[in-house]
Amino acid sequence: MRDRLNPITTRRHLTYLARAFPAATTRDIAFWRIAGTVSQLRLIRALALGLTANLAKIGLVRVMERDRATADGGW
User: Fold this and answer.
1) Would you say the pTM of this structure is higher than 0.85?
2) According to the lineage, what is the superkingdom (predicted)?
3) Domain boundaries, the chain
4) Using CA atoms, how far apart are residues 36 and 17, in angstroms rounded to an integer?
5) What's the angle, vertex CA 69, arms to CA 64 and CA 70, rounded to 5?
6) What whole-number distance in Å separates Cα of residue 30 and Cα of residue 50?
7) CB–CB of 20/36 below 8 Å?
């Protein structure tokens, strides 16, 4: 389970962003620029994981809807 409020992890992520986007360069962080700071392999892995998780979620929702419809007496 992921601890979202872990101060050590939060500090690590904020340090990464501060180094990737130094104040002398820009004061704004654009989401499309963050992808340029991540390696290609890491980006592809994250996209694949996200796609897989979303497809699994969609499949689970459909199965639950089908089971509920069946329990109610029909499609």
Assistant:
1) no
2) Bacteria
3) 1-37, 39-75
4) 12
5) 95
6) 21
7) no
